[in-house]
Amino acid sequence: MKMLRSFLDGIHHHVRPGGKYARLYPLYEALDSFLFTPGTVTAAAPHVRDAIDLKRVMITVVIALIPCFFMAFWNTGLQANSVMQSAGLSPEGWRGVLLEAMGYSGNPASFSDNMLMGAVWFVPVYLVANIVGGFWEALFCIVRKHELNEGFLVTGSLFPLICPPTIPLWQVALGISFGVVIGKEIFGGTGKNFLNPALTGRAFLFFAYPAQMSGEQVWTAVDGYSGATALGRAAEGGLEAVTGTITWMNAFWGTIPGSLGETSTLACLIGAVVLVATGIGSWRIMLSVAVGAALTATLFNLTGSATNPMFAIPFYWHLVLGGFAFGTVFMATDPVSGSMTPEGQWIYGLLIGSICILIRVVNPAFPEGMMLAILFGNVCAPLIDLIILKLHIRKRGLRHVQR
């Protein structure tokens, strides 16, 4: 690390303001800040000193995502290997050649085979998302002449995890470009976006290329294989269609088809513990999203429907299916696009949970629901906080008058 520190110090005069390559300073600063503690720190009053900063916040979120990364490898491989073993298939194309070179045998009971199969599908998606998204981040920083911060670490990690395994790589590049540029940079960059960039990119792909983002042929990493998600089956045949193939514990552990890293409720709960313990994620939002979903689902259960089987899905199934847990823990709690006031966080979470179940039940054409619910909550969050703040100001004014 000493050699690297000396190298960065040696080129600093070239990239600092007034230097020969001053326009590249955002890239230099981003690399320096990522590898080392910032050299300029608060030393005295009137500033408040704290051990946490943006860099550590973003890295903590990425650490909380590690269990979901694990599932992106292992469960993606498990689903693919199980299908190929039962159908007598083998990996094709460059993935097949690469797997064979790594000693892959295609056994779904083998931990290493599942991890290898998951890796050849997930890693390319992850690399494309981060390379393309990082390019746009760097470009906007150079043009605006401001620092390249660590905000993209989270977006570049979240976006691949909410994509289906078979998504074409060019769509990954297009989706992350839309999310970063349209959902974030045109509003000023990190801290100024009112929509979650990863979800914005996912929503764009969902409506622009529905065949590659939904349906029955995108959830298992086997070319040409058709298999619906649990929510897709529920929309067609109700709870019986789900329990006929999986158990509630299967859904909780995450050993079901779905997006790359959002199938496991357990993995999301581990991440939730990390975020709440470090004070980065709001427990109010997480709890209120779950409560809002449970109340709305129970209301539909009591109402009933002779034509729509989704009315009968119990709330405890909704909590473990689709991207509900992942969205609750990692998306709804985004400190930039979510509600910031304590009271507003309760309202914001209840709104997202209720809207998610409403979309899932009333409109089976969108059986997931969580993505649209969070984006709707993002739009409403500033208004919710504004109303809460005005109520506080009015309450304090009345107290002053009474005195």
What does this structure look like?
- It is a single chain.
- The protein has 403 residues and is an all-alpha fold.
- The protein has 3 domains: 1-37, no CATH class; 55-227, no CATH class; 245-403, no CATH class.
- Helices cover 65% and strands 0% of the residues.
- It has helices at 2-15, 25-35, 54-64, 66-87, 93-101, 111-144, 151-161, 169-181, 197-208, 210-213, 230-237, 239-243, 248-253, 265-277, 283-303, 315-318, 324-331, 342-362, 370-402.
- The radius of gyration is 23 Å and the shape is flat.
- The N and C termini lie far apart (62 Å).
- Mean pLDDT is 88; it is low at 44-48.
Number of separate strands: 0
Overall pLDDT metric: 88
Biggest sheet character:
none
Note the total helix count: 19
SSE arrangement, N to C: HHHHHHHHHHHHHHHHHHH
Q: Helix fraction?
A: 55-70%
